[in-house]
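Closing statement on the zinc ion sub-project.
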Amino acid sequence: MRRFTAKLYSAIAQAVDFKSVACAFSLSVGLTCSQPSCGSYLLIQSLVAAANALLAFSRRTITQYPKQIGAALAVLLLSAGGAALAVATLAPDASELPVHQITESVTTAAVNAPADLDLQTFKLYRSEVTRSSDTAGTLLARLGVNDAAAAAFLRNDPVARLLVGRSGRSVTVETGSDNSLQKLSARWTTENDGNFRRLVIEKTAQGFQSRTETAPLAASNRLASGVIESSLFAATDEAKIPDNVATQLAEIFSSNIDFHRALRKGDRFSVVYETLEGDGEPLRAGRVLSAEFVNGGKSFQAMWFQEPLAGAATTVAQASGKGGYYTLDGQSLRRAFLASPMEFSRVTSGFKMRMHPILQTMRAHQGVDYGAPKGTPVRSVGDGTVEFAGVQNGYGNVIILKHRNNHSTVYAHLSRISVRRGQSVSQGQNIGAVGATGWATGPHLHFEFRVNGAQRDPLVIARQSESVPVSNAARPVFSKLAAENRAALAAAALVQQSSAQ
Ligand SMILES: [Zn+2]
């Protein structure tokens, strides 16, 4: 299954040529007239031929994986339909259109098209994301719909209010060749309950009708990869990877790689993650299943693994069947101490590490400064108890936590303290917020790690803390999964290489 996905991606990469055919199509329509001409008909035929070529390429697997083949054909047809609409609406180039927002009826059209392609009733598909500033008119205009009756319906229908004026909901329309609305559909998730909402507005003999439905999300796996040019988020944006997945990557490898301070240009990553889809459209990113990160030429790999629930469970983790990340040779990546007191995020990654202009003149700077906006959550790096929570001269609002084996951590310049002296805290718990109290020229977190009272590098401590291997009982299952993940990561790396060519 995963191997097939890799093949499919390379097939899509080969479809780049077909995209240029689609561009030629839009140009020809734009320069001649809106009626179908011989020229554009030939170009449509080329597209159909392209689709057939891909069909031939994947004929061996189509019986096993009809859904995936449908998706590949849909990519080709989207290029064609999208380009045609681009002429009508002066929208972005067809090559920039997302490839995932395609309904299944496109696929059917592709397969049937060679025999009887009727250009007079050619249906066009277009997707857009709603904005909070949208009115019925502006939304339909961006979707390339020119239909006064549809606009009136959207303005007055109570169900349509779930769409107009809401932001971030992806909408797909199906229009006739005269840009009249035939069908509009939208999908989104509201709660984390495994379901999505579907809104449908359809033209019927009695006029437009609307309905909403609830349907279960389907999980599927996505492969992606990228190269760091400026920042992790710039690279994940480029690879169309959701922020949630980027943050997971930084957390998974946090004890190996300092994402705040040590990312290098040319560092690269591959990732396999779950995506939750409604009608084949990705609506929410799920868990990272496996990942590789190459930092400064050194490669780190990780995979998600859940110890099977067994009667012979010997540890609490096993008994609860709690999952976690492991290296591919079976060492847990969970550590007694997190490497960073702040989650790596788009907010914290935008700030450079700050120097300490005031303290530096008074004594050698000790500890690590994390630049971040005021209010950014600060977390405990390990289990422990609160030894001090209050104000100290240069530190301003400060929390000192006591951990096992004479380890302690210090969190200074806080704008808010959320814990009390004597309280016990667990690893990752939110204890306060970044501020600029005490001797601080701007908002940042001053963090110290002390062992027997002496300053230590937090990252070194995080790496040193022991890790737990997979149990012997779970080894066979783990090894099989690790082999699959190695193959999936290799395929993910190819996705990037082929799209970079
Ligand atoms: Zn400092």
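The mean pLDDT is 74. With this model delivered, the sub-project is considered complete and its resources will be redirected to Aim 3.
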